[in-house]
Write a structure and sequence with these properties.
By secondary structure, the protein is an alpha/beta fold. The protein has three domains: about 70 residues, Alpha-Beta Plaits, CATH 3.30.70; about 220 residues; about 50 residues, Nuclear Transport Factor 2, Chain: A (Roll). α5 crosses α11. The longest helix is centred in the last third of the chain and has 23 residues. The radius of gyration is 19 Å and the shape is globular.
């Protein structure tokens, strides 16, 4: 009998987070890319054909898949603290530089050995990397908006390091939490990013940027989604924008089934929504998150009651849920196992 992830792949809702690749004890699964074609027998997705054809039946992959686990009804119920913050060293950051600031400070204090993140080259092509120093963190500043199997890098990280931080979008934060609960306690901190949707790199770099934004990829300094638009800033000082609806339809199909906007399974969630320009919104969700943020507190400027605050965050949670919950409910009817949106506190 194939594992549950085979059905997730077959129904085109695999998030390509990479968790199954990270934990499979025989290395059967290798997520090459967020494949447009999700045939479980497609060799482009798996190195050995469908992973279940060589599966030994441990079913670890089913215990760490975020789609199999499902979503949470109230994703703000576990927020212990909400505030805005800005790293005192935020030059070159997307907003307030909080994520980079946390990692840099933890490396300098010798609180973590490794962090899993994404960097990019001058062509905005992303690459999953293992960071091992504060200097390495500089390479990961800024949001990329394209998806890669970040969590897959944990396979190598587990072999080399004992105190690992994971930075990722909601599906990646979710699977990292499941891995920590079911497989390895070497993950000491999970930083989740707010995310409405992400894009295949080819779609972003070959369709959206040149055809819709009418910009050369190599000229881009920064991208961001804010105030109802997708913005691109170029090195010559020009600013280009289009309504989000013009690009949202090109998002990865699994994103249209996702019902987590704020990374509810993270220890700390970080975004820009709810905070003033130049600041990050910060959600402390767990005792672990509180402990680690206290370690870096002196490296941050804090705004205790940011505006527009959680009201705006809540509106975007509702918007994502309104757009996606129906799609997820429909695919859940096709699964042989039970999953869905559950009413509990993480």
């Amino acid at each position: 009998m194939p594992p549950k992830i085979a059905e997730v792949i077959d129904h085109d809702v695999c998030a390509a987070c990479g968790a199954c690749e990270a934990v499979c004890p025989i290395g059967a699964v290798a997520v090459k890319k967020a494949a447009e074609i999700r045939d479980p027998n497609n060799l482009k997705l798996y190195e050995k054909g469908a992973g279940y054809l060589v599966c030994e039946g441990c079913l670890t992959c089913s215990r760490i898949c975020p789609v199999v686990d499902g979503f949470i009804e109230n994703e703000l119920a576990n927020v212990r603290k909400f505030f805005a913050a800005k790293s005192r060293d935020n030059v070159g950051s997307q907003d307030g530089g909080v994520t980079s600031g946390i990692l840099k400070s933890l490396f300098k204090q010798d609180k973590i050995d490794c962090a899993v993140g994404i960097t990019r080259n001058e062509k905005w092509e992303p690459e999953v990397v293992l960071l091992t120093s504060a200097e390495d963190v500089e390479r990961t500043r800024g949001t990329k908006y394209t998806s890669d199997p970040v969590v897959a890098a944990l396979r190598e990280a587990f072999e080399k390091y004992d105190r690992i931080a994971v930075v990722g979008v909601p599906c990646q934060a979710h699977s990292a939490k499941l891995i920590r609960d079911n497989v390895s306690e070497k993950i000491v901190l999970i930083i989740g990013l707010l995310c409405m949707e992400s894009f295949h790199r080819d779609v972003m770099l070959e369709k959206i940027i040149p055809e819709i934004m009418k910009v050369k990829v190599e000229d881009i300094r920064k991208m961001e989604f804010t105030k109802g638009k997708f913005w691109v800033y170029t090195n010559d000082g020009e600013v280009h924008s289009v309504p989000i609806k013009d690009v949202a339809k090109y998002a990865r199909n699994p994103c249209h089934h996702c019902c987590d906007y704020t990374s509810v399974f993270a220890d700390i969630s970080v975004g820009s929504v709810g905070a003033p320009d130049g600041w990050n919104s910060v959600f402390i969700r767990t005792e672990v998150g509180e402990e680690y943020f206290d370690m870096v507190h002196d490296e941050m400027e804090i705004m205790e009651d940011p505006k527009p605050g959680l009201d705006l965050v809540g509106k975007l949670i509702d918007m994502k849920r309104k757009n996606n919950a129906g799609h997820f409910a429909e695919v859940c009817k096709e699964f042989s196992f039970e999953t869905g949106i559950r009413n509990e506190i993480v």
